[in-house]
Amino acid sequence: MICRIMHRTRYDYGCRVFLEPHQVRLVPRGDASQRLLRFHAAITPEPAGRTLVTDALGNTVLMVWFVDTTDHFAVTTEAVVETLRGNPFDYLVETPRAVLPIPLTRAEAAVAASCLEPVAGEQRRTLALAERLRQDGADTPQDFALALLSWISANLRTGVRLEPGILDPDAVLAAGEASCRDLTVFFMAACRHVGIPARFASGYHEGDPDSDEQDLHAWAEVCLPGGGWRGFDPSLGLAVADRHIVLAASPHPDDAAPVFGAFRGDGGTARLTHEIRLQLSQPNE
Length: 285
What we know:
This protein is an alpha+beta fold. Helix content is 19%, strand content 38%.
């Protein structure tokens, strides 16, 4: 699929403030599942400097810095991405390692150690659920991920939650409804408990084709023997294929935030507005 994306983010501060250096994680990732064909970022006020860097997690980050005060900060990105993975199961399972917990290679263990740490917050009931799924037969990495998706689809609802932060995994169970970011961390907690490295992915999904409203989306990526990092979307109950576009992935959600930075000023308060437009088409269209 060819994905054309326009993403406008604006912060208004109510008074003039000084912007500290900002990290903008709105550059679509280039990897085995997607290819970045074109990218442009317009920023106001005009930064004193900007550069693209690869962070310690392998994400492309646009770093910008400023010298003057301003009453706003706005970023408009335009990107064209080709998604490459029509089949999310296009790999050969390494049968000897298809057990829980996954026996990791030396390289995998070094990279994935932080993706096996327990997530923050109360999760006793969530971990009990993970154990029950494993005991009921979901005892390989792929089977467990799919069984967990199925359980979430049958028992939890996806909703919009405007409050900041992320619910504890057990709070998701208690509420029976959560945002995509809450469900992603819930999914990560269960996977990590049984020994599957899991991380938080931020990006875009095609959404409802009949709706003009788009928003950032979140899902999980897990490291599978033979498959490497693969996406699983607990909000939609599916393995990620060519209708998702990744911006950034991290063991902790904060490190996949689309914009990260601070400002200095007396009485300044930030008001955020944003707009996303996403169009998908076949390569020959």
